[in-house]
Amino acid sequence: MFVGRQSELKALEDEYAEHGYRTMVVYGRRRVGKTALLREFAKGKRCVFFTAVQRNMKTNMSRFLAAIPAENRPVTINPEFEDLLGAVGRMADVGRTVLVIDEFPYLVNADGSVPSRLQVCIEDELCEKDVMIVLCGSSMAAMLNGVLSAKSPLFGRRTSQMKVEPMDYAQSALLLDGFGNDEKFRIYSMVGGIPQYLSMFDPSKSLDGNVADLFLRPQGYMRQEPSMLLQMEMRDPTAYSDILSALANGRGRLSDIAAYADVESSTASIKLSELIFLGLVEKVTPFGEKPGKKTRYILGDNLLRFHYAFIADTDVPYTDGEVEAFLRYIDGGIRTYLGRTFEDVCRRYCRTRLGCLKVGTWWGTDPETKTTEEIDIVGSGMPDGSGPLLFAECKYRTRPMGADDLETLVRRSELVSCSGRRYALFSASGFEDGLRERAETEGVTLVTLDDLYSGAS
To answer: Would you tell me the crossing angle of helices 403-413 and 433-442 to the nearest 10 degrees?
Structure first.
């Protein structure tokens, strides 16, 4: 079942509607749903959909040939890449035609001259045709360096590009029909917005049953997925594991990450930069401040966060008793882990529902108490972060938030200079009656977990 991705479909349709020659580069991490998106887009269109494989060029050309309608195939025995591109061009003489080359990096691996050969065919023939070419790939490094880079032969021939991002928590919920809102949130916190991963969860089983089957048992689908993700992008994925583990276990400063991973700070900095490039790690600074000594690094991928927080350094459970014991171990630390994801989800809500164009977090020292204070969310309705600010606190805990939580937030907000303040509180367990009464009087926004998922789309 295909759900969501309306903005991505619109971008593809807009490119298709331009007519004449167009080339769109589509990229994004493994399992994010690029192929499903492109197949949905291709429905009802004159389309050649060719998926490259990790085999030699002869095998790939046979697959390309088979993807072309029989009446349009070249008569040449063992046709070359150029012959097949020419057949697509002739299809475009009859009507607008789409050529999708999925897993394009595999084709380049089979023959490194493919980008240059495609460029020549575009310049010699296809640029005059009513054809839309879509080059798609899951290897972020290969697509960014080999296709979108200024050094690539194809750099000047693309007309647009699109990075397919993981779904946000609201769109992810559409793939989790049959689960309650708290279960949807917990699943999202484990695997993020990756459609393939979300689809693996079975609503006929308990959440613990799903975790046991997918993550803990040796044959579980998610057991090796983090390793496979890293192997796709890195020559030596094991060299990055300690860095990822440091981030998953709360180390945020460069010096702390390097100490945890037992490497020099310069080495940690290089590896962090590569992980940022791949979209797996984020570099953050307090809202309104420039990068500097306060800069932190965070692990931005939920699957890797969950894996390195609970799974990576443990022995594989084999017996039912071992699985049950491990589930209790996860349950013992899950609330602290979920708190970080809850903040991320609430920040997204501030962008989509509370009118914030710039959202972040803030931390600093209270000059009076000399203590370090932190505000979960600071948001602005202006892209540059100026103007009146929204201050918010997020709590994923068993007891409701009370008036003391609001008072703490108000006090901390006064440490940040701004032209005006408004407040919001996010609570997974609701709010005390006294706080609700005060919020209504003072115009404080109160948001529950069910509110976060209300109208999600």
So the answer is: 40
317: pLDDT strictly greater than 80: no
Pairing assessment for the beta strands 131-137 and 358-365 based on DSSP bridges: unpaired
Q: What is the pLDDT of residue 236?
A: 81
Q: Kind of pairing, strands 281-284 and 296-299?
A: antiparallel
Burial class (CB in 10 A: 0-12, 13-18, 19+), 399: exposed
> What is the C-alpha to C-alpha distance for residues 152 and 142, in angstroms, rounded to an integer?
11
DSSP element (H, E) containing 311: none
For the chain, the straight-line distance linking the first and the last C-alpha, in angstroms and rounded, comes to: 15
Instruction: Name the DSSP letter for residue 165.
Output: P
- Under DSSP, is residue 135 helix (H, G, I), strand (E, B) or coil? strand
Helix (H) or strand (E) holding 13, with range, is helix 6-17
Query: To 5 degrees, how large is the angle CA 439–CA 440–CA 444?
Result: 40
Residues near 456 by beta carbon (within 8 Å), at least 6 away in sequence: 169, 170, 171, 173, 174
Q: What type of residue sits at position 100? A: V
Using CA atoms, how far apart are residues 110 and 437, in angstroms rounded to an integer?
67
pLDDT digits (tens, 9 = 90+) for 265-301: 999 999 999 899 888 999 999 999 988 889 999 999 9
Q: Which of 102, 137, 149 shows the shortest CA–CA distance to 30? A: 137
* Model pTM score: 0.89
The model's pLDDT over 368-406, given as tens digits with 9 standing for 90+, comes to 999 999 999 999 999 999 999 999 999 999 999 999 999
Written as one letter, the residue type at 273 is S
| Interval 42-92: pLDDT, tens | 999 999 999 999 999 999 999 999 999 999 999 888 899 999 999 999 999
Q: Band of the pLDDT at 457, cuts 50, 70, 90?
A: low
d(CA 87, CA 72): 6
